Request: fold
Amino acid sequence: MSKKENPDNKKQDSADTAPTENEAGEASETSDDLKGIIEELTQEEQDEEGMGLRVMPLIPLRGITVFPYMVLHFDIGREKSVSALEKAMVRDQIVFLAVQRDAETDLPTRRDLNEIGCIVKIKQMLKLPGDSIRVLVEGVSRGVIDEMVQEVPFFKVIAKQVDETEYEVLPAGIEALMRTALAKFEEYIDVSGKLPQDILASLMSVDQPGRLADIITSHLDVRIEAKQSILEAFDPEPRLELLNELLTKEIEILKIEQDIKEKVHSKINKNQKEYYLREQLRTIQEELGDDAMVEDEIKNWLDELEKLGLSEKIHAKIEKEIKRLSKIQPSSAEGGVIRTYVEWVFQLPWNKYSAGEIDIKGAEDILNEDHYGLEKVKERIIEYLSVMQLVETMKAPIVCLVGPPGVGKTSIAKSIARAVGREFVRMSLGGVRDEAEIRGHRRTYIGAIPGRVINGMKEAGTMDPVFLFDEVDKIGSDFRGDPASALLEVLDPEQNKEFTDHYLEFPFDLSKVLFITTANTLDTIPRPLLDRMEVIEVQGYTEEEKVKIAEQYLIPKKMKEHGLADEGVRISEGAVRDVINYYTRESGVRNLEREIAGICRKSARRVVEDRAAGKATDIRVTGGNIEKYLGKKRFRYDIIEHKQQVGTTTGLAWTIVGGTTLSIETTRIPGTGQLVLTGQLGDVMKESARAGISYIRSIADSLGIKKDFYKTDDIHIHIPEGATPKDGPSAGVTMCAAMISCLTGIPARQDVAMTGEITLRGTILPVGGIREKVLAAHRAGIGKVLLPRDNERDIDEIPATVRRKMEFVLIGHANDALPHVLTKLPKKRAAAKSGEAGDSKGKGAAAKKQR
Reply:
C-alpha cells in the first residue's frame, strides 16, 4: 500500500504511504546498535548525549505516522525538510519524524508539531523530477522532543529516545490482550478485504506486545490522530488496550459500510432491471404511437407555460415538473400525480381580469334593484368603486357583514358581484374544521388536491372575483388544525399577494379579490381574524321595511315561481302585516318568504280547481282570511295596556332575531332579607339586580323605605317566559324601578319602557341594541322609552316613521327615571332632594327628545 503526496506541490514534504512487500524486502536490514553511528559532534551536542539526549534534525510529516521497526518510503519537497535530510545524510542518517497537528499548514512552527514522534534511520534516498526526494526509512524507536534547538534553515531538536519494554515471560493479562488483538485484526482483514492474509502469518512470530501493537496499527486504515494516540502510548499494555478499542470500532464501521454497500448494490440492480423493462415498454409505446402523444402534450405545456408570463421562480418550478414527466413512465402512479398537478396549474386564471368599465350609477341601480335597505353596505361598495376609478391598483377591501339570519347578507354579496361586473364564488365555512380545506393537502398524500380557495379561483376564471366566505363565525378546530388561522393569510391585504397553497407550493396573488365574509355574531370570531376585516353591521328589518320587501320583491318573485303572475291572485298589505306579526318572529325575511310561498301554493291549487270547473279565478288574500291559507296564528305580540301596577315595570331586551319587551315583576314578602331571582336569569343579570338593591338601600331614607327592609322582607324578582334564558346588564334600571315601586307601594306605568345598566351609585350606563329594542317597544304600543344619556347617538339609527310616533327620555341617573315610571314621587323624596343633589349633580334633569 503506497500513500504519496502530489509531486507537483513544491511545499509538500511527506507522503503517507507504506512500502510494497518488495520494497520492504529490499530495505529489511535493521540496525541493532546505533551507538557507533555518530559523526563529530559539537561540545554542546556531546554534553547532551552524555545526559541520554540526542541532537538530530527533524522532518515534519503530514498524512502519515511512522512506528518503530516499520520500513516505508515517502516524498519530501519543502525546503526545510530537504535541508534536514541533507544534514542527516552527512552525519549518521538519523532523523526525528514528527506528525503535524494540521496537515494543511505549509510552514509549520514548534506549536504545529506533536511532542512525540519516531526516531528513524535513513536507508535510501532518490531525487525525483521537480525537486522532490523519495526517502526510504526504518523506524528505530519512539522519541520525545525535549527542546527545539533551531527552526532555520531546518528544524533541529534535542530528543530523548524511548526504549521499548522487553518481556522474557509475558504476564497473563498482556498475553490475553495480544491474543485479542490478533483475533480482532484477523476479523478486520476479513471484513475490510483490503489486506492479504499473509500478514497474519508474519505476526505469529512476534513475541513482544509493544512491537505487535505497532505493526498492527501501521496496517490499519484509520485517522492520523488514532495512530498518533497509539504512538504516544509508551507502556505496551495500555497500547494494546487502545488498539483493541480501535479495532472494535473500525470493525463495526466496516460492517455498517458493507451493509450499506449491499443495499445500494441491490437497489442498483433493481433500478437497472426497471430501466431495462421501461426501455422495452417505451419501445412498444413508440410502435403504438403513445409516446408521441405524451411528447406532444409536454411540448404544448412548455409552449403554454411561456405564454403565461409567470415570475422566474414559479416558471422554473412548473417547467421542472413538466420535464420530470418526460423522464418517467406516464402510466405510473408518480406520472399521474405530476400530470394532475400540471393540469391544475394551467387551469388557474393567470393574469386574467374582469373586463369592462366601472359604472357607479349602474352599480348603485343594481344594488337598489336587488335589495331594499342595507344602506351601509351599498354605500361602502359604491365608495370602493369610486376609488377604483381613480386608482386602479387599490387593494380590495375585506368586508365582514354581521347581522341576524335572513337579513340578506349572502344575497347582497351576489348583488355586489353583479354590480361590479365580476365573477362570484361562495365558500361556506360552517362546520369546517380541517386546515386543508383552506390551504389544501401536500402532494405526498394520495388524492391530494388544492384547498377550496384555489379551487374557487379556478372556478371563477379571473384573478379578481367577489369571494364570499359564508358563516365565518361558525368555523371549528380540532386535531387537523385551525382553519381560522389559515384564513389569516387569505384575509390579510399585506400577505394575500403571496398566498401559498400546500398543493401548489408556490405563491398565488389574491390581492385583487374582493373578499366578503358573513357572520351572525362577532363573539366567536378569533380576534386576529376579526382585526383583518372591516365590519359592517346589517341590522334587522322593521315591520315597515318587511312590508316593502314583501310587496316589491318577495310576492312578485313567489308569484312567478308558482305560475300565478297572470292568474288574478292578490295579497293585501294587511295580510302581509299579519304574516309578519303572527306567523313569523325574525329579524330577517326568510320565514316571511316561506309563508308567502305557502299562500301561493294554496292559491295555485284553487286556480287549478277553478280552471277545471271552468270558473274565473279572483283570489284576494286579506287579514280577515289569512288563517284559511296559513292556519291559526303561531305568535302573539303583547300590546302593553295603559295601566299601573305596583312592582311591575316594562323593560327592553335584544335577541338574535330582534328586540323584545320584558315584563319585570317584583313582590315583597315577609322573610329574612333574601333576594330571589327566577325566570332563568344569567349571572350578569343577577348581579345587576344585586347592584340595584344595594343602591336602594343606600337611599332608603329619601324614598321613604324602612332602613331594615332587607332584614325583615324577602324580595322576589321574576321575568316571565321562564323557559327562555335571559342575561345581560341592560335590565338593571328596569329591575331597580320595579323594586322601588314594590317597596314604596307606588304603582308603576306599564306603557313606559326603559333600558340601561345601573351602578352602585345609581349611574345609568349605555347599552347596545337600541334600534331593535325601540322597534319592539313600538310594536308593543309603547309611546315613551327611557334610554341612557350616552345612547343619544343611537336614536338617529331608528327609522324616521318610528321616531315620529315615540317620545325618548335620556336619563343619566336612576332617580331621573322615577318621575316617568312611578305614578307619584315617594313621600320623602322632596325633603331629601337637597341631600341627593351631590349624588346626581351634573346629570341634569331628564332630557326629553321628541322625534
Q: What stands out?
A: The longest strand covers residues 132-150. The first helix runs from residue 21 to 26. The two ends are 110 Å apart (CA to CA).
